[in-house]
Please model this.
Amino acid sequence: MFKARQMMKTIRNITTYMVVALMMLFSGCEKYLETKPDMRTDINSVDKVAQLLASAYPQSDYISFMEMASDNAEDRGADKAIPALEYADPYNWRDHIGTNRGSTTHYWNNAYSAIAVANHALAAIEEMGNGPEFQPYRGEALVARAYAHFMLVNIFAQPYKPGTENNSLGIPYVTEPEEQVVVMYDRETVAATYEKIEADLLEGLPLIRNSAYDILKYRFNQNAAKAFAARFFLFKGDWDRVVHYATDMFPAGDWIPNIRPWSTTLKNYTAAELNTNFNRSNQKWNLLLIEANSVLNRAVTYRYGMGNKLRLMFVNPNVTGKRLHHTVWTRSGDPNYHLGKTSEYFYYTGPGIGYPYIQVPALTTDEALLNRAEAYVHLEQYENAIRDLNMVFSTRTQDWNEAVDGVTMQKALAFYNLLPDDDEQEQEVGLRQYPPEKQAMLNVVLDLKKAEFIFEGLRWFDVIRHDITVEHNFLSITGDEEIRTLEPGDLRRVFQIPEEALLSGVELNPR
Amino acid sequence: MNNFSLGKACRALRRHLFPQYLYLKMKITLFLIFVMITVVQANSLAQRVSLSASRMKMEDFFSEISRQTKHRFFYSSEVARAVGRVHVDLRDASLEEALRSVLDLDKFEFKVIAGTVTINLKENKGQMKMAVTGQAQSRVTGTIRNREGEPLIGASVSVKGTTRGVQTDVNGEFSIAASGDAVLEVRYIGYQVKEIAVDNQQTVAIVLDADERALESVEVVATGYQTLNQKFFTGSAQGLRAEDVKRDGVPDISRMLEGQAAGVSVQNVSGTFGAAPKIRIRGATSLSGDNKPLWVVDGIILEDVVNISNEALSTGDASTLIGSSVAGLNPDDIESFNILRDAAATALYGARAMNGVIIVTTKKGRNTEGTPNFSFSNNLTTFLKPSYRTYDILNSADQMAFMIELENKGYFNHSAISRARNGGVFYKMYNQMYEYDEASDSFALRNDFESRVNFLNRYANANTNWFDLLFKNSLMQEHSLSVTSGTAKSQIYASTSFLQDHGWTVVDNVKRFTGNLRGNFNVNDKLSIELLTNVSVRDQKTPGANSRDTDAVTGRYSRDFDINPFSYALNTSRMLTAYDENGNREFFVRDWAPFNILHELENNNMRLTMLDLKIQGGLKYKLFDDLTYSFDGAYRYAKSDAEHMVTEFSNMANAYRAMGDATIINDNDFLYDNPDSPNMFPVSVLPQGGFYNVNSDGITNYYMRNTLEYDKEIDENHSLNVFASTELRYTDRQNRTMEGVGYQYDRGGVPVIDPNMIKWRTEEGQYYYGMEYNYDRFIAHMARVAYSYKGKYNVNATGRYDGSNLMGDEPTARWLPTWNISGAWHLDEEDFFPADQNILSSASIRGTYGLVGSLGAANNSSVVFYNRPSRRPFLSDVETALLIDGLKNDELTWEKLYETNLGFDLGFVNNRYTLSIDLYKRDIFDLIGAFRTSGIGGQFTKMANYGDMEGKGIDATVSASIFRGGDFTWMTRLNLGYNENEITNLDSRPNLWELIRQDGGALVGGPQRGLYSIKYEGLIPGFGIPYFINENGEESMNVYFQNTTGVDNLVYHGPIDPTLTGGLYNQFSYKNFSLSFLLTFAAGNHIRLDPNFNIRPSDLSAATYDYLRRYYGEYPVFDTNIPGIIDGVSENQEISGYPYNAFNYSDQRVAKGDFIRFKQFSLGYQLPRTWAEAARLKSASLSLVGNNIWLMYSDSRLNGQDPEFFGAGGVAMPIPSQFTLNLKVGF
Model:
């Protein structure tokens, strides 16, 4: 006889037993499975927020590609070491496809990583009640987030033009931790991006306290934040605020002991000392250093860089009538010139393997002072501009005598052939967008910045902000030279966004 | 386990063996019910019986009592027929009561001897007399034993053609009345039936051979956690008896599976003791996971001490030495293996079973009526040294000719090589020419042609045999002693073993001790308990080894201070000499310091000690009839210490103080360049002493399982088995490292520490000590229902719910439900199955469909923050930074696959020939792989479930007992596994290097790991520089290995794992002799040849014979693809990139991995019983075993090199050819 009913009953009984037993077990399971699989940590204290923010800075160098694309690089000869494409592509104004250190994608990724850290820190602060003890770090997170977005928008979007709509595509401004594999983002406009940067900056800056940091120079200390504000408002064309924030850095005006002493201390350094000490935290001119995964220091011997032409910046007399007193070094012989600014630090993760790092001088007093000088020029306060310029020149000119060597408007106009009796042909040497006096002073600032920040990448920002045409030479193996130019308005003046961004619904730059 | 009732299989057996009329006349035929011996779980050994059933078949009744009491039953078919169906209602009855309740004692008689119940029909005396009339009767006595010499208790002996029969007693002895010309028929379940002519002998010694078919059907249902009646089992599995796959002289049991199980690929990437082979069951299922099968030993999942992925096994790093967790098991303790392949078979293991499961069952005690049975086994093994005949290495004369061409092209000159990092003969020559001795006003070597020729002559003729110097034919001994003893209430198995390997090379050796104690106790008829303790201790010495590095730019693997004797012999020029003319050790230069391999091996080695302890207990309690509760728990603790001892005399230590001159000081990267004093020369921070570096791994593991099992035969047609269990695993792994600097081995062990060493290491981010914990928590709930209708149709459904902490904090990723359904149809049980035929004797079809999961290599279901020091050059600037290691991925889930399996089991000619085929298809999805995002969220490459793969394959086993039953037997078995897989979806974009390296890479459309190559185009005329199609699709000598685009320009060869693997096993026996051999084979994979080509071949390293076919000039005498030697000037002018190294990774440097290997032979001799008895032994046997004898076929491109072994260096060694003498005695 078929015992279906008996069977069903048995099954029912067993099922009941099991369900009860399992229910009892389940309650304990969740707690058991909450154990972390490894020695990871949670952000649950002020201290940990502080430590987390140590990685809220883009650990990548923008120098490689910004320098290569700018007129601070030249072809040193077809027989030179062929650089990796991260270097060759920007020199040729080609979009680089690849993610290696020194590439635009590498910087993009690392800048957004820094932003993610800031966002996680802000979320943690919010979760822990946003008490007063968190405020300096909230400030740091906001300013760091603003900084990374600022760098991104200036690299990957059309430059901000003061007084225009700025409605070209910006970059995604991220304010929330990402929790899915793929999340959609919107580029909005440059104006919108700048607005958000400004909001973060202005909210964060007053909260920053030097006392919150153990290692001041690698974090947004008060002066670094002000220097960043000065740069931001310079790019935005808010000249008064540039002056305000820069001036606020050294209210007593004691800039000279705080900027790079090229003609004295640095002049006396051996090459090894200079390499080691230039981007070091104990140097007063360094306001914000960022460790960046980079092989930039090896690029000194590559095909493109400072050669015999660019070296002239340190050989020929400048507007002061004297020449810049930086020592120009060579590596592996001429024309591999460099200023000995960087050294490579190899961080080992295992025997023989690891990551090469350089310490990027992200913000310096020298730049802040020159930014103020530029703002004064725009404000047409030439006296103030000249005062700032002379402070800079005084520290990088041999036997500086301000009375003789100091910059004057006359010298500037003469140097840039902007005197009324100069003929049109010669006037082409310099830029001519403004009235002669303003143009002359601006040229002094820009040329000084170009020389001062060679190997630091900042020239590119001046190129795009001031619509400077870039000229690159190309040498054949027989030494024939071809010159190509990158004119204002050329779409290649905006670096291309990594194509993976399409996954997140982010438009690439037009080409 | 199988209960052999008088079912179809037995009838079939009889049909075949006896003419039908004889069979009918037979009154007593005894069969043995062989119950639950190889079962993992403790069975109830209760003597009490509880059973309630109506109209129960006699066979089922006996088998149920057998199951409950663990008694074996003998009865004839007549007995079963005579009893018919019975009605029972027993509660806590004794065995005797149970039997009395169903057997009419007027008709039947039963005896209980040694756990064996014999039931006979009471004889009709008259018939009996008739049967014996006219025949001279005498008594024949004898013993029955198996091949191992163990007495077979309860074997049945009958006189052919009569109804007389007896059983053997506890000692395997019997006595029966038989005429001098009678033929005795001997039967024992699990063994082949044997007929022996009495031939007027008074005593006979009979040896029975195991019956393959019977045992396989026994094992197939040991699923590790559950012992399921075979009729419920519907999955794909293969059982192997340890004695069949045993490889005497190979102490690691994981290698026993090689070529023995269909669908199991075992690749010996390293033969060093303790290194796991690369095992794949049905191919790989994960792109980023470890793809290792799960080992289950005695019902407990065996966790690895360190998680080493299959790919990491070939690195030769020291951690690989503890890669094989089963290396602590004594092969003599193993009873059987069972390989579970498909979803239905592995259902009980759920989320860890995606790569298959290997069940290992160790031996347990037997009921010997209290007599201790000892077994001693002794292996003496000797190894063959490797020989130059099988490797592609130039002799010293050819090497010298090659070097002279290099010298002529300007490579060796004083300025170029005198301060080189490494230097050999030419380094020495050029330095001696500048070594001025003031006293004699002469140079150590005159700089004239004649002196130089003389100097080089010695080396040209050296032809050093490095293999001979670095290897030895040493002895490995294994001694294993075990004892089993038991009564019906308690059984004990205890064993201990000692292994000592004196080492194949001059430096390595191993000692291993194991101890194993297992007891089974029946407290009462409801409760039984099992206790198990397993200990192993290992003490191993190997050459000192650092970790392997990969340089993605130049595409080279490198290892600082590698002194692996095998790689040294393989890579070192035969021009170099170990001893100078005066017989003293001759030193050359490595890392700017003097180097002699023999000296270095003495002064730089590693000692690995490991302790592995497992304590396990289980209990079974019968809650009700049919419902059993069981608990199993285990604790395991293992700890290993690898002490890397580098003495102050070693080359490695001396490299840290090699400060020859300013050039060397600046070049030597083992000197410290202090950032605080940038103007100073680098200095040595190891002024004295060497290193004492320790790397320790430890594991603490708890395991618990609660099980309820309901097993019920509802009536003759319906049976049901419900099984539910919850398990909990808890594993903590710890790794500790310590770099001991400046240890003085020769000065009482006092360290001399330069604080700058610590400062240097700290600045570089290399900490002098480290410690890390990993926590693995796992919970699973599962239930399984199996139903069988008349034993014809079986259905099986399993559901499982696994939880793990490994994916991170988020509860959503924590749990995974999996399920499968399966069924089997035993056609031979059908009425329509032709009964009276001899051709197709059994047939069944199995089918499975289900979901299996596995944890992938991602742990970021919530955001992961780690600590790390900021990477800044000055310690004063360094702060602890927290960083995001992985952004939260709230979609993270387990890797999964849907498997469809279709299996056929066929038996022919009374199952003399069997064929088992499984076809499977796998849809593998949610694979975790590197996924490139927009980067905007802050993490460019995320580990996410974006990969899909398809797999399919066939597993087939054919076995045949070609001769059986007589003096000569021949059994043969062929296993084949074919598997191919294809990645159907994957986003990762590997760079060139990740695809062309020997481990292969993953690309959509390719296999899980495929081997790709740079396309070789030709040699540049006049120079012989190779050029290729580079990453941009252009002809160029410069290929940029780190490029992630342009992988389309690579050439695809094939998978790196073989698609076809298998083995052919043959076993012959003739009387007391036995012979077996095993051939293994694999095909379908490709191998990257060793990267021998170098633009500047050094005067230290060995060149291959390929170099003799190199490009010699613009007007070549022969066509060649081998690059030429380029002179120094052209090197500077013509070369860009690393073309010679790119050549190593071109399509010219790939071989096929196909091979056929004569893996093993074994010749055995069982000592006649009389001899053994004279020595007061129960049995004795002797065998000679050869392992890895002959590589019968491999691609000629390999020039004889082993296709399985990667020249990995470190602690890796190929598997040696070896011969073992095995002695086994029972007493």
Observations:
- Confidence is low (pLDDT under 50) at residues 426-430 of chain A.
- The beta strands of chain A are 74-75, 286-293, 304-305, 329-330, 337-338, 345-350, 353-364, 470-475, 481-486.
- Chain A touches chain B through 99 residues (CB under 8 Å).
